[in-house]
Amino acid sequence: GFVDVETGEIVNPAMFQQMKEHFPDPWPQFRDELKARLSIDDPALLRTEMERLGTYPLEALEALHPLFVSRAPQRRNGGAAHMDTIYAKPRDVHVLMVNEKQAKKTAIDNAEKIWRPATPEEKASMAISRIGVTDKDSKGNFKLTLEKLSDIVDPHRNARMIDALHQWIVSRDEREKAAKAIEASFGRGKEKRKPTEAETAELGRLRTLPRKPLKDDRDSGPFTGPIIRTVKVNAGKMSGIHIRNGLAAQESLVRVDVFAKEGKFYLAPLYIADKVKEKLPDQTADGETQIDSSFEFRFSLYPNDLTKITLKGKGSILGYFRGYGGPPNPYNITLALHDRNKNGHERSNEKGEIPSIGVKTALSVEKFNVDVLGNIYPAPPEKRRGLA
Fold it and tell me: Vertex 311, ends 307 and 313: CA angle to 5°?
């Protein structure tokens, strides 16, 4: 209580002096040195700052390097085998649309999206999911968008329903904004009042659910058919575990095995569900390339294994392995910066992670070990091991 935490003012000098006597600085400039060691990543700049503070002898300055956070690799073999959600597999009668980008010869940026029905071979690797018309993601955005309408199953048979949903979505944001304004007028806490009958009715109108069009309904509405609560959409290409005539995405990634062949790198993910199989997976992450004796096994990447990816013309990225992209990006991995600094790299996100690093055409993929003091060493050669 001797410091004002908002202003930093010492409001009780006697107590502050007593604390300094009980907990003296280990050496002069200790606080400034600690701040520099925690914030400076450039070795040359760090040595210059330490030389200015005068706390290090010359021989120590020559060996000085920035702090590197050591993280323990997660080499576990337990966890859930699959996610809770079970996706339906498309039947022969289902029509699922896919789009292809047809690049023009003059400018690839002006590529057009061409929609066509998925072939039987494409449907075999796809799944169907349900989206509630009022479902929202973690950021509070509606999952069912105008763009998502293109993924609705059997678009030709459901053309009028899709058009009705289009009209409902176009006005949804304005109606939601108006509804929140009415709710805000009720006040909060002890000041909160009950809505009037007119306000309750208006809220019901603004948040009405879409309805299917009947044959007699005009194209512009109002539509009088059954309420639409969920829609079936194309969940895209998906690999997983077959359960009750459906498909569940695999839950716990144990590791990713890295292979090399003809100057390219390939990933083979291993999940908890693979423990019960007689042999290790012999396909790469895209599910299409068979691993045989022509592939060279490099190493296994577990979560928090330090990895260095060198990309063509883009330099190197060093970070802890967090996961791989999965379909439709089976050769992308995510690395986390050692200190999770969101400003530590031009591509790092709010979590201090760098997602979507393509490894297939990388110049090199390397694995390192880190001791408890943050010293980095090249990982020794490995043999591919089972999951027992």
Answer: 150
Work out whether strand 332-336 and strand 353-358 pair parallel, antiparallel, or are unpaired: antiparallel
Q: Which two tokens stand for residue 34?
A: 């600690």
Report residue 213 CA to chain centroid gap.
38
Secondary structure tally for the chain: helices H, strands E? 7, 16
**Helix pair 159-184, 197-206: axis angle to 10 deg:** 150
Contact criterion met (CB below 8 Å) for 271 and 252: yes
Which residue bears the tokens 């002069």?
28
**Residues forming a β-bridge with 318:** 308
Report d(CA 203, CA 175) in Å as an integer.
Answer: 9
Q: At what angle do helices 30-39 and 43-53 cross, to 10 degrees?
A: 180
- pLDDT tens track for 151-194: 888 888 889 999 999 999 998 888 888 988 998 888 887 788 88
Give me the residues paired with residue 117 across strands.
97
Distance of CA 5 to the CA centre of its chain: 36
What distance in Å separates the CA atoms of residue 345 and residue 351, rounded to the nearest whole number?
12
Integer Rg of the chain from CA: 29
Specify the higher pLDDT residue, 29 or 127: 29
Residue 2 pLDDT grade (very low, low, confident, very high; cuts 50, 70, 90): confident
- Mapping DSSP to helix (H, G, I), strand (E, B) and coil, where does residue 300 land? strand
In which residue are the tokens 């329903």 written?
Answer: 161
- Bridge partner list, 212: none
DSSP string, 43-105: HHHHHHHHHHHT-S-HHHHHH---------------S-SEEEEEEEPPPTT---EEEEEE--S
Asked if 131 and 226 count as a contact pair (C-beta separation under 8 A), the reply is no
